[in-house]
Amino acid sequence: MLLERESALAHATAALRRAEAGEGALLVVRGPLGVGRSTLLESLAALSRDHGFVLLRAQASAAEEPFQFGVVGQLLDSLRGVVPPDDMARWLRRADASLPGGTSRTAPTDGTPAAAPAWSALSRQQAPRWLTGLLGCIQDDRPAVLMVDDLQWADTGSLHALALSLARRARRRILFVFSVLPGDVRGTRQHVRDLLAPQDYRAEPRCPDGPFRSDDPVSDQTLELAPLGLNSVRLLVEKSLGGATDPVFVDTVATRSGGNPLLLRTVLDEAQYLRLRPTATDAVVVATLRPERVRQRLDAFLRSQPDHVRRVAYALTLLGPAADEQFVARLAELDDAGREQAVEVLRLAGLVDRRSYRLTSGTVLRDLLEENMPAQERTVMRGVTAELLHRAGHPAELAAEQLMAVITLRGPKAVRILRTAAASAQRRGSPRDAARYLRPALLDASLSGHNRARLLVDLATSERSFATAASLRHVVEAVPLLITVRERADAMLLLGPLQMDPPTFRIDAIRASIAEELRRSDAGEATERELALRLEAREHVLSAQDPAHIQRALRRFRDLGPSPRLATPGERELVTSLMHIAFVAGAVPAEQLASLCTRILEQERPIPDHVHSTVPLAVNILAGAEHTEGAANWLREAHRLAQRRGGDVEQAVIRCEQALVALAEGHRTYARNKVVQADALAGPEASGLPTVCTAVLSIVAMNTDEPELAEQLLTQHRLHTENQHLAALLHVARGSLAARRDEPRTALDHYRTAGRRTEQIGWLNPVVLPWSSCAALMHHRLGEHEEAVAAAQSELDRSRAWGAPTALGRGLVVLGRVTSGRKGPELLEEAVTVLEKSGNVYELCRALYALGTHRETHHNRRSETLKRAHRLANEHDAPALTRKISSKLAERTREPEARGNRLTPSERKVARLAAAGLSNSDIASQLGTSSRMVEKHLTNSYRKLGISGRPGLAKALTGDDAEQ
C-alpha cells in the first residue's frame, strides 16, 4: 500500500512516457533513512514492466562496494529470464563490437543465453563504451529503464561506467532511476555527485572521447520523499491490526514512528506479532517497542559514518530539546566547522530537523540511537551533559534526567545536581520524582558519613508521601550518621506519629534514645525544648495502648491545667497526643476536649503536611465529640491542596479524616465513598494505611452496614494481630457478619472478645468501639434479658460520661430495644430527644424507627414516628433505611393493630431452643420450668409467627429478628 506517493508516481509515469517517445531522462529519488525509497522503486519497476519497458535493475550495498563493476554486473544479470535469449545474445554481440578492435560474439548453439563479458578484462575506459553500446542496442528494440537503488554504495567502476550512458540519455529511449540516501558519507564521492548532476560532468583528460557531456535538453527530475501524515498512519494501523482504532493508539504509533514508513512498518509488524489491539490500553505497550530491523538499519548507517558524525548524533540524542550549537559542539568535542558538517550529514539523512538542532523521525529512532551508544561513552556523555545543562542555567530536573540512566555517577557534582533537582520536584509537589532523583545519588561511592545522612533525610522526606516503610528505613539508617542530637531529633520528627508503628525497625527505641540524649544535653534553648515536646508527643501516641502509660499521660494532661499553652507546634502536638489518650480512655468529657481541639485547629494551616503531625488525632476527637463545624471546611481546603501537590499518603489520610467527619454528621454515603478512595491510595508501596486510619475506615465501613469491607481492611493491615484496637475491631466486624448469618452465639463471642481486648488496654470510650451495645443485642436475641440490659446499661453509663449526643442517643436506643414493658418506649423517647440536638439525622431516623416498632409504644405514636422517620430518611438520602421504614408502614396498613403479635422474651427464648433442636423436656430442664409451660409458649409462638410447627421455626425467627 503506497500512501501519499501519488505525486511521485505521476511524475514517474510522465517520465516513462517521455522516455518511450525518445526523450531519455534521469529520475533521482531522495529521502531520509527509511522513508520508502526502495518501495517507491519497486512500484516504478512494476509500472515500467506494465508499459513494456526492458528493466535493468541493481541494488548497491556497502558489502559489495569493493567488487569492481559489481553494480553493472547486477544490471546485466537482471536481464536474464526477462528477455528472449536470442535478443540477449544479439545485444551482447553488438556491445562487444562497439569496443575498439572488438569482434561480434557468436550465439551459443545450445540455445542458452550468452554470457556477460569478463568485467575484469575490461579497462576503466572500455567499460563505459561497452555499457553505452549495450543500452543503445536495447533501446533500439524497446524502451528501457535502468534502476540503481542506494547509488551512494555503488562501486567506483560501475559509477564510471554509468556516466557515459547517462550523458547520452537525451535522444535515447532510456529512463535512468537512481535512489540515494542524502547525508551518507559515500554519497559525497565525486563520481556519485557527477551522476546525480550529469549536466556538469567532465571526463578525465585522457579519455579518448573527451567529456561525457551532451548539450541536448533533458527533463531530469528529483523526487523528495517525506514522512507520512496522521491519516495515512491511521489507514496502515487499520490494515495491519484490523478493527476500530483508538485515536490514542494511532497518535502513539505516529509519535513513535514519526510517520517514517520503515519505522511505521516495523512497529506495526512488532505489534501484530505481539497480538496487540489498536486500543488505548495497548498504546502503552506500543510506546516501548524497539524493532530489531530498525536497530540493524541504524547501526549500518552509523557504522558507515565518520566518528564525528556519530558523536554529534549521540549529543543531539542526549540533549534533546535543550540542544543548540554551543551545547552540541562542546558535548561532541568539535569545532564549529566539524559540528556544522556533521549536523548537515544528519539533516540530509533525515535524522535532524532542518530548522533546529532536534532529532526527527519519531521517538523509536531516538531510543535506538541512545542504545547504540557504547555504555561507557554514554555514561561519560550523560555526565557531561548534566553538568553543561546545570551550568547554563537550565532547570535542575532537566540536568538530573541525564544522570538517571548512568551506571555510575561522576562524583559530588552529579550528587549536587540530583539533590537540587529533588528539591525542585518537592517544591512543585512531586515527591515521587524527588525520591527518584535522590535514590541514584546513594550509589555514589564518594558519599559517606554526614553527607550520606543528609541525603537519606532528604530521601525520607520525599518518601513519606508515598512509601512509608521506605521512609522509616531511611530515617533509621540516617540517624546514627548525623552529628548533633538536634539533627537526629529533626530527622526523627520527619515521621508523623500516625506513620510510626512501634515494631517497625525498633523506631520507638530509637526515638526514646534521642529524647533521652536531648534531655541530657540540657541546652535549655527554645529549639531544644520544642524538639523535646514533639518527641514526647510521639511517645504518648506510640504508648497509647499501655494502661500504665495511659495513667501517666492523664496525670501529665491534668498538670497542664484547663487551658494549656498552644503557641508553638510542639505545645500543640503534646496537648493533642495527651487528648488522644484522654479520648480513647473516656477520662475527660467531650466538651472539654472539643474546645481544646477547636483552638488547635484554628492555629494550624490546612495543608497536606498536617498528616505528618498530631492534627489528625485532633480531627478524630472532634468527630467523636460531634464538634465538626469548622473541621469539615478545614479538611476541604487541605484536600484541595493535597490533590494538587500532595502525595498518596497525604490524600489517603485526609480522606480518612473526611470520612470520619462525614459519619459524625450522618452523611453515610459520602463517608463510604471516602473510605473507598482512601483504600485505593494505600497500595503496597505506601505499606498500607497508618494504623489509626485503618481503624477509622473500618469503623466507617461497619457504620455503613459493610462489615465485610471492614474485615477486609483490617485483615490486610500488617499489624492487625499485634495492635489490640485493630484486633478488637476485627472481632466486631466478624461478630456483625455472624449476626447476619443468624449465629447470635458466635457473634456474642466475638463481641465479648473485642470487649476484653479494649478493656485490657484501657480504651473505655464507647465512641472508639461500641462493643457492649452489640453484645446487648445478641443477648436479647438469645433471650438473655438480664445480660442484655446489663450490657446496654454499661455502655449507656460510659456514653453519658463522654457526653456526645449521638453516642448517648445510640446507647439509649439499644437499652430501649432490650428493655421490656413501658420502660422501653420511655428510653427510646429520651433517645429521640437527645438525637434531635445532635444534628445526626441518620441516627435520629434509627431511633424513631426503633420507637415506632417497639411493641409497647402507643398505636398513634407508632404511626407518627414511623412517618417522621420515613420523611427524614428520604430527605437525607438513606435509601436502605427508607425502604425498611416503607415496608413497616405498608405492613401496618395491611394488618390491624394486634397488641399480642410479638413474641414475649420467654416465648422467644423457648422458640430459639426449640429451633436449635432441643426437645420440650430438655427445654423445660434447662429453663427450670414445666413441659406444659414450654408447650404453651411454643403454641403461642407458632400462632404469632404464622407457622404450623417446628420445621418453620428457625426461618420465622430470623424474619422476626430482622423486623426488630
From TrEMBL:
SUPFAM superfamilies: C-terminal effector domain of the bipartite response regulators (SSF46894), P-loop containing nucleoside triphosphate hydrolases (SSF52540). Signal peptide: none annotated. InterPro entries: AAA_16, P-loop_NTPase, Sig_transdc_resp-reg_C-effctor, TPR-like_helical_dom_sf, Tscrpt_reg_LuxR_C, WH-like_DNA-bd_sf. GO terms for biological process: regulation of DNA-templated transcription. Pfam families: AAA_16, GerE. GO terms for molecular function: DNA binding. Residues 896-961 form the HTH luxR-type domain. This is HTH luxR-type domain-containing protein. The lineage of its organism: Bacteria, Bacillati, Actinomycetota, Actinomycetes, Kitasatosporales.
